[in-house]
Amino acid sequence: MESLAGRAYLVTGGGTGIGAATARRLAALGASVTVVGRRGEPLDAVVADVERQGGHALAHPADVRDPAAVEAAADAALARFGRLDGLVNNAAGNFVAPAERLSANGWRAVVDIVLNGTWNCTSAVARRMIEAGTPGAIVSVIATYAWTGHPGTVHSAAAKAGVVAMTRTLAVEWARYGIRLNCVAPGPTETEGAGAALWADDADRERVLASVPLNRFASAPEVGDLVGLLLSDRAGYVTGSILTADGGQSLGTQIYGPPIADAAAPTASAQ
Ligand SMILES: CCCCCCCCC/C=C/C(=O)SCCNC(=O)CCNC(=O)[C@H](O)C(C)(C)COP(=O)(O)OP(=O)(O)OC[C@H]1O[C@@H](n2cnc3c(N)ncnc32)[C@H](O)[C@@H]1OP(=O)(O)O
Ligand SMILES: NC(=O)C1=CN([C@@H]2O[C@H](COP(=O)(O)OP(=O)(O)OC[C@H]3O[C@@H](n4cnc5c(N)ncnc54)[C@H](OP(=O)(O)O)[C@@H]3O)[C@@H](O)[C@H]2O)C=CC1
Predict the structure, then answer these.
(1) What is the C-alpha to C-alpha distance for residues 257 and 134, in angstroms, rounded to an integer?
(2) Count of domains observed in the chain
(3) Mean pLDDT of the chain
(4) What ipTM does this complex have?
(5) What EC number(s) does the entry state (predicted)?
(6) What are phi and psi of 183, to 5 degrees?
(7) Which residues form ligand 2's pocket by a CB distance below 6 Å?
(8) In which element (H, E) is residue 258 found?
(9) % of the chain surpassing 70 pLDDT
(10) Residue 258 falls within a domain, yes or no?
């Protein structure tokens, strides 16, 4: 993988799951990372981990829904590392709820974190890169239901679709500054947060697994790898794109042949 040595990135939701794996990956590639989330403890643990490996990281607790807190996080990253080369919009909130029972507050909580939070961070980091005259890259972690839709997740699906529109709009608008914006759309990924929110019992877990042609969950580090790839110069001509890594889930399940659960192939395992 291409080195990110000397670069500095801000990763939201960087204390757990995909965000933590991404922060570790970027640090292993030589980048300095500022991890942002509401709880300080998981952020501190990631920083300690990165520093044990000889990397550089900073924990900055903040709620991405609060524009002033996000501005302060971007300032802290700049003050500590002297530059900002990009951002990973990974923070999210989610739960499964039938749309007719979703309260105004439930809708607002998820849309505020996923869509408004992504805007707050994107705007704060990009304005600083534009001001410094340095190019950079922004990757947002979305989900395939941004374009397929998915019953029970109307708040998250609508918000993630908004992030796709934001990404495509700004990819064109900020190309003149050398800022690339892309999305990664993982399929079901083994994390505590998603497990609790989306497949809390064995039956749901089995149902989700049966919908994935590759017949396994993604791992957080393999999603982090893809984020690293899109941030790197290897992806220097890629902007406004979505990299889907969902084991084929969004293509739909087969009609003919044996059930997916009977057809797990050795090539389908994580590297
Ligand atoms: C499926 C496809 C698979 C297959 C496809 C796989 C692709 C998956 C793609 C995406 C995966 C993810 O995003 S996984 C990320 C999961 N991680 C997380 O969710 C971690 C962060 N979560 C959170 O912070 C919370 O869960 C969240 C509710 C979102 C925000 O917390 P807040 O403290 O801001 O808000 P709260 O005050 O607690 O709640 C706000 C309102 O939401 C309501 N609310 C909260 N949980 C609720 C629930 N389970 N059901 C109904 N309503 C709920 C509350 O009652 C409140 O409304 P009132 O009572 O009316 O006031
Ligand atoms: N796991 C999966 O199957 C899939 C996940 N995704 C996406 O991947 C991303 C990561 O999810 P995953 O790692 O699974 O789940 P996690 O629950 O581990 O990650 C969510 C992170 O966001 C942070 N966060 C939540 N709300 C806020 C907020 N208001 N301000 C700042 N930080 C916040 C949380 O930290 P804290 O609570 O401390 O604030 C947490 O670190 C999300 O965007 C999700 O939608 C997409 C497809 C599939």
Answers:
(1) 53
(2) 1
(3) 95
(4) 0.98
(5) 1.3.1.38
(6) -125, 150
(7) 12-13, 15-19, 37-39, 42, 63-65, 90-94, 113, 117, 141, 143, 186, 188-189, 191-194
(8) none
(9) 95
(10) no
Q: How far is CA 21 from each of CA 24, 87, 182, rounded to the nearest angstrom?
A: 5, 15, 18
The residue whose C-alpha atom lies closest to atom 1 belonging to ligand 2 is 189
With tokens 């972690």, the residue in question is 141
Q: Specify the pTM.
A: 0.96
Residue 1's pLDDT band, with cuts at 50, 70 and 90, is confident
Name the band, by pLDDT with cuts 50, 70 and 90, for residue 261: low
- Residue 264 forms part of a structural domain: no
Q: Give the list of residues 6+ apart from residue 149 with CB closer than 8 angstroms, or none.
A: 157
Q: What is the pLDDT of residue 262?
A: 64
CB distance 245 to ligand 1 below 6 Å: no
Is the residue at 260 inside a domain? no
Task: Answer whether residue 134 is part of any domain.
Answer: yes
CATH number assigned to the domain comprising residue 44: 3.40.50.720
Q: How far is the CA of 209 from the centre of ligand 2 (A)?
A: 20
